[in-house]
Amino acid sequence: MSAKIASRFIVLSSVGIGSYLLGSFVERRKIPESTACRRRASESIDYVNERGASNFIHEIVSKPGLPIFGTVSAASPFPAEQKSAVPVNVSRVGQIMKYGFPGLDNVRSYDDYVLSYDRRTRVAHWVFEHLTAESVKANDAVDRAKCDFKADDSVHPFFRSLNSDYKGSGFDRGHLAAAGNHRLHQQHCDQTFFLSNMAPQVGVGFNRDKWNHLERHVRKLTKQYQNVYCCTGPLYLPRKEADGKLYVKYQVIGNSNVAVPTHFYKVVVMESADHRLEMEAYVLPNQKIDDQTPLSMFQVPPETIERAAGLLFFDKIARSQLSRINGASSSSLAVEHLLLVRGVERWKNQSALRLPAK
Questions:
Q1: Average pLDDT for consecutive 10-residue bins of the chain (358 residues)?
Q2: Which residues touch 275 (CB under 8 Å, ≥6 apart)?
Q3: How far apart are CA 118 and CA 109, in angstroms?
Q4: CA angle 101, 102, 106 (to 5 degrees)
Q5: What residues contact residue 177 under an 8 Å CB cut-off, 6+ apart?
Q6: Rounded Cα distance, 27 and 20, in Å
Q7: What is the pLDDT of residues 4-25, one digit of tens each?
Q8: Long-range contact pairs involving 339-347 (C-beta distance under 8 Å, separation at least 24)
Q9: For the chain, where are the alpha helices, taking DSSP H only?
């Protein structure tokens, strides 16, 4: 019995050793061929990085649609076979994002604003702007009437929103980065009409009225503050249904299934000439709003927006560095507590915020 087991063991061992030797021989034959392939590959274009003759990466290159940590993608189409990257105005991006990125998902830079695109909803996560008195003042050389709404070709066709999605939907193509904020050059204004910068908004009573009032208020801040930093985006907030449970529900429009946000937010930081910082935070429901309702009714603690959006706004600024938040002194713990309590109550009462009735 033991002899039979021993013979089987010898046979299996022989097969294993033979397979190993055969495999080693085959792999050694492949080495010259694979080396040649790698040499040819090193001479070809690396889509992400530029390589030197020694095959070492000598420069990290920012390529559209392929954000690298610490870089921002240029928002223009870039064929895979093209060798040089589309130039990115790194200096301007640094100015706009001086106080931090809210998130790093699909970040794209344009000439005068920065955007993070949500491929799933076909609406941006956030849009960031840096406003000054110079950038928002009237400019006869910039004509909004010359601008056309257009699909953003830098977004993959699978995830792109189209003008046809909005046609007949009953919603406006609402700007996130407002056209009126970008009046230095015609191209700056033109780029705010990319559909990646749009979201479906109720027209009368919201986009054309109360939301427009908020945009004008932000521009007006440049008369008082040297720099104004504005982050804008959508929210999809839960609402209590008849069964007492909370649900997140939102409409989609067009063949691209563009999401219709339930609310929109703006978080604004104002920087004075002496570097004093203040913050204002707003959330408005995507619905018709009474024109007499003051904007202050829509101010909320910035923390409530961060929790709802899954983003951190101006994370390079400690809250203690802000002299005022929504007009109240941030140094007062009592006021801060009141803001938080008010925020909690608004979340409980109406879809996370106490908002005017429809």
A1: 65 65 62 49 40 42 40 44 49 96 96 98 98 96 97 97 98 98 97 98 98 98 98 98 97 98 98 97 98 97 98 96 93 55 56 49
A2: none
A3: 15
A4: 80
A5: 113, 115, 127, 129, 192, 197, 232
A6: 11
A7: 666 666 666 666 666 666 666 6
A8: 339/301, 340/301, 340/303, 342/300, 342/301, 343/300, 343/301, 343/303, 343/304, 346/300, 346/304, 347/304
A9: 2-43, 90-96, 133-136, 163-166, 186-191, 210-220, 302-309, 333-349
The tokens for 175 are 């700007």
Beta carbons within 10 angstroms of residue 77's beta carbon: 13
CA dist 18 and 23 (Å) reads: 9
Residue 291 and residue 235: Cα distance in Å, rounded? 22
Which residues lie across from 175 on neighbouring strands? Answer: 198
The answer to whether residue 175 is catalytic is yes
Q: Which of 269, 251, 259, 274 is nearest to 315 (CA)?
A: 269
Look up tokens 């050694």; give the residue.
Answer: 28
- Cβ atoms of 101 and 148 within 8 Å: the answer is no
Q: Distance between CA 118 and CA 219 in Å, rounded?
A: 26
Q: How is residue 125 written in tokens?
A: 């996560």
Instruction: Quote the tokens at residue 100.
Output: 């931090």
Residue type, 206: F
311-321 burial code (b ≥16 CB/10 A, e <16): bebbeebeeee
User: Which of the residues 58, 125, 156, 175 is marked catalytic?
Assistant: 175
Q: What pLDDT, in 10s, does the model give residues 124-181?
A: 999 999 999 999 999 999 999 999 999 999 999 999 999 999 999 999 999 999 999 9
Cα separation, 103 vs 248, in Å, equals 22
Nearest residue to 176 (alpha-carbon basis) of 213, 230, 97:
230
Of 109, 108, 114, which Cα lies nearest the Cα of 127?
Answer: 114
The angle that helices 302-309 and 333-349 make with each other, rounded to 10 degrees, is 50
pTM exceeds cut of 0.85: no
